[in-house]
Specification:
Layout: E1 2-4, E2 18-22, E3 25-29, H1 38-48, E4 53-56, E5 61-63, H2 64-82, E6 89-93, H3 98-110, E7 113-116, H4 123-133, E8 137-140, H5 145-149, E9 159-162, E10 186-191, E11 201-205, H6 206-219, E12 227-230, H7 237-250, E13 253-256, H8 262-271, E14 276-279, H9 281-288, E15 302-305, H10 312-321, E16 326-333, E17 338-342, E18 357-358, E19 363-367, E20 381-386, H11 398-405, E21 410-418, E22 424-429, E23 434-436, E24 439-441, H12 443-451, E25 456-466, E26 470-479, H13 487-495, E27 506-509, H14 523-526
Parallel strand pairs: 4-13, 6-7, 6-8, 7-10, 8-9, 12-13, 14-15, 15-16, 26-27
Antiparallel strand pairs: 1-19, 2-3, 4-5, 10-11, 16-17, 17-18, 19-20, 20-21, 21-22, 23-24, 25-26
Helix pairs in contact: 2-3, 6-7
Amino acid sequence: MHVRGIDLWPAEMVRNLVEETHVGRRMRCYPADRPRTLTELLDRAVERFPDRDAVVDASEQLTWRELRERVRRLAASLARRHGIKAGDRIALLLRNGPPFCVGVFACAQLGAIAVTLNTKLKSTELEFMLQNSGARVLLTNPEWWPQIESIRDRLPCEAYHLTPYPELFSEPASSAGPSPSSEDDTAFIMYTSGTTGRPKGAMGTHLGIINSAITFERCYRLSGHQRTLVAVPLFHVTGLIAQFLTMAYLGGTTVVMATFDAAEALRLIDAARITHMVAAPTVLVMLMLQPGYRRAGASLQALGYGGAPIASETVTRLREWLPGCRLHNTYGLTESSSPATCLPDADALSRVSSVGWPVPTAEVRTVEPGSERDCAPDEVGELLIRGPMVVPGYWGNPEATAATMGDGWLRTGDLARIDRDGYVTIMDRIKDMINRGGEKIFCVEVEEVLCAHPSVMEAAVVGVPDPVYGESVKACVVPRPGATVEPEQVRAWVRARLAKFKVPRDVAVLDALPRNPNGKVMKGLLR
C-alpha cells in the first residue's frame, strides 16, 4: 500500500508544494520562500518579533533579539578561540534551558553541527558518541562534568566549557559572521536509542528540520502568538523540532521545564498561557490525575501526543477536559526529523489507534518485511517513509545508511497497516511481534487494551518462551498512583476484549517500566 500526503490533506494544507531535488532525491517540499537554514529561521523571528519572549525557564527569559545577541557572541567566541568552522562538530550535553537553545543556533551560525547528547547517558555511552562524532568542543553543565572527566583522556574534544561559561560571551556579536550553511547541510547529529546495537548518529539537515516545523504549523493549524510548554528533553526531536524550532519558525515562545512535574506543568499551562504542547500519553494521564486539573488548560489550542499507544478513555477525557483544543496523534522517528504522520483532530475519537495520514510532504508504503512487495490495503507490513523530513544517513556509518535508507525510503522497522483511506496504524516493532503457535500477536494491540484498564498507568507486552506454543504473551503493567492491580484481574480484562490466544499467560506488576536513556521501554529486560 502506497499513499501520499498531498492526495489526502485539504487544499489549504498542501498549497504551494514544490518539486525539488535534494541529496540526489526528488521530493515535495514546502514553498520556495521558506527559510533555508536555522540562522535564517532565527533572523526572521527577530525581524518580525524582536521583543517577544523566545525562551523562558525558571531562572530567565530571553526575547528573540536577546537570544540572537547571545547566539552571535557565542559563535564569535567559538570561532576565535577554537577555530570552529563549517562542518565541525560541537557537542551539547546540557539540561533544558536557554543555554541549549543558544548553543543550537550558535552552531548553525558557524555552519557547524550540533551533537545533542542525552543527559541520562553514562560515561561509556558518551565516550562512544563523542568519539564517533569527532566533536571538537563540548558545552556542558557542571553536574555532568564528572561523567566527562573520567573519560577525558580518550575523547577527541580540544576544549570543554561549563555553563554559564562567561568567557564565551566576551566577543562582540558583530564578529560572528554569516552562516555558510546550505539547507542540505547537516545541522544536528542525534543518536538513536541503540536498542539493537550501537547507537547511530542520525544526520538531521536544515531542510528536514524546517520542513518539519512547517508541517507542525499546517497540520496542527498553528497561527497567531503560540506559546509551547516543553516538558520533554530538548535533546530529542520532540522537544527540539516539534516544539522549540517550530516556535522559532512561528516567532512563538518556548517555556521550558528542566524536569517534568505534573503539578508544576499544570500551573505553567495557565500561568504562561500555553497554547501548544506535545507529550507522551502517560504524561497526559499524569496531568489528569492531578487534583483540580479541569480548572487548568483554557488557553490550550493544539495538543500532540505519540510514542506509545493511547487509550480511547484517555482521548475521551482529554476531549471533556479541553473541548476547544485540537488533538493530534502523531508518529515520527529521529530519522524522520519528528513528524511523518498526523491524525486530523476530527478523527481523534473515531480513529484512536491510528497515527493518521502521511504529512503533506511525505509518502508512506507498507511492504512485506524483508522484501519490496507492496502490501494490500489493511495488510500488515513494514512501514517505509519518503520525503524531505527523512535524514540522508547516519554519521560515519555507511553500512547502516545503506540498509536503512539507501534507496531514499526510510525503513522504520515498524509493522503497520494502511487502510483504503490512507490512515496508518502502527502495529508493532518487527522484532517484538509474538508468534504463538503460528498465531501472530501484535504487542501494541494488547497494550492498548491494558492501558484502557482504569487502574493501569502504562503497560508493555513481550513474548516469552513457551514449551508448547513456542512463545506466549507476558504483560508488564504499572498501576496508577493509589491503585492496585491483580494478575488475574488483568487477564480477565483482556479475555473480555481480545481473542483467547492474546490473553497474557504471565502478568508482572511493576513500579515502573525499565527504559533506556532515550525513554524507550527495554523489552529485552522485561522478557
